[in-house]
Design a protein that fits this description.
387 residues, disordered N terminus, 13% strand, 3-stranded mixed beta sheet, 45% helix, alpha+beta, disordered C terminus
């Protein structure tokens, strides 16, 4: 077996080129049911109709990757992962091309996999979560009816690292804007409630535009905005929000200094994942009200997350387009989300679950579509994490 380290690995995007090529179907429940004692049918009739079993590829540890038997026609396997770590496995050839990928195989877990391969010699690569990647020995495919299997040269860690550094440099230039709005919020708490609330929403949108990486920044955490929001949308005096607003502005200043004196960038293995996860987290948390602390500012948060996603995607765009991904539908969908945020910001000042069902469904559908379009970016640039 051939072992090589890929904690920040080269990755695959066959899903982006041919979504039907990605094998992600779950294996139906295992186990067999015995016939009732009252069933008079001969046992032989059951065995006659049974389908032949698919070959099973057993992944027992992180030090080896199973080698399939020679494939005649269509490959069809069951991958059984008992390695103790979540697994991604893909087909590759010695020319450096990647073909088919099976993602997110838990442990222990079985998954069906029927990769579409043309005649040739291949090997499997087993990629273990936060660990190494291991190659199998070669296996051959003959008698296949496929003549043009989709393939790509995997994106390397070095390429993604360069993108992350470029994006971090651009982001650092925007941090003073966050500082300015944090201090404007402090000043607004000495005014009337409406002015303070407007300043807060202005800060929130800018803060959310850094959602791809703000939680990873050096320096103090910036969660203090929650306390400011709770106070400004309560019955307590506006001046009560001044103290947490000052603490927030101080934390933003310290974070800006930490970023200015460090070499922070999104880690290469996480970059593509963060491009996708910002909108996933919006769907998981904001649309369930878990980030609403009184302002009912879902449209504001959505605008910020659209900016974050767009800026993160901008830096990696040429890289993924060079591997065959058409990003124009992604940008069109982000534009659509931006329009919806503006439309519903003017219409609602209530919690998302109080919106009309039609409008909720419209936002939910648009966000889900964005996440669907963004998923291949993660697949192309990072071995997906399972936790």
């Amino acid at each position: 077996m051939k072992t090589f380290h890929i904690a920040t690995a080269a990755v695959l995007a066959i899903a982006a080129i041919a979504p039907t090529a990605v094998a992600q179907s779950s294996l139906s429940s295992l186990g067999s049911s015995s016939s009732s004692s009252r069933d008079s049918r001969p046992a032989a009739s059951t065995s006659t109709s049974a389908k032949p079993k698919e070959p099973q590829l057993n992944v027992r540890d992180v030090y080896s990757c199973p080698t399939p038997e020679k494939v005649q026609g269509q490959a069809s396997w069951k991958v059984y992962n008992t390695s103790g770590l979540a697994l991604t496995v893909y087909v590759a050839d010695d020319a450096g091309n990647a073909y088919q990928v099976l993602e997110r195989v838990g442990t222990p877990a079985k998954r069906a996999w029927a990769p579409k391969l043309q005649d040739g010699t291949y090997h499997l690569t087993c990629v273990f979560h936060n660990d190494s990647a291991v190659k199998s020995d070669d296996f051959a495919v003959t008698g296949s009816t496929i003549t043009d299997a989709p393939k790509m040269v995997p994106i390397t860690d070095r390429e993604v690292a360069a993108v992350a550094i470029q994006q971090a440099a651009r982001q650092k230039k925007r941090v003073p804007e966050l500082q300015k709005k944090a201090h404007a919020l402090v000043e607004a708490t000495s005014k009337d409630r409406r002015a303070a609330q407007a300043a807060y929403l202005d800060y929130l949108e800018t803060y959310r535009s850094f959602d791809d990486s703000s939680e990873m920044w050096p320096g103090p955490g910036l969660e203090g905005y929650m306390d400011v929001e709770k106070l400004l949308w309560s019955k307590r005096p506006v001046k009560d929000a001044a103290k947490p607003a000052r603490a927030l502005a101080d934390a933003v200043d310290k974070t800006a200094r930490a970023l200015d004196t460090s070499h922070f960038a999104i880690p290469a293995p996480d970059y593509g994942l963060r491009t996708h996860e910002v909108m996933e987290e919006f769907e998981r948390f904001d649309m369930r009200g878990e980030r609403d602390f009184g302002a009912h500012a879902l449209p504001t948060a959505l605008r910020g997350d659209v900016i974050s996603t767009r800026l993160t995607l901008d830096a990696v765009r040429s890289l993924v387009e060079g591997r065959g991904l058409d990003t124009s539908p992604i940008y069109e969908q982000l534009d659509e989300l931006d329009k919806l945020a503006t439309k519903f910001d003017e219409k609602y000042d209530t919690a998302f679950n109080k919106w009309s069902q039609k409008d909720r469904m419209r936002v939910q559908s648009a966000v889900a579509r964005a996440n669907e379009l963004l998923a291949p970016v993660a697949t192309m640039t990072v071995v997906r994490r399972m936790d």
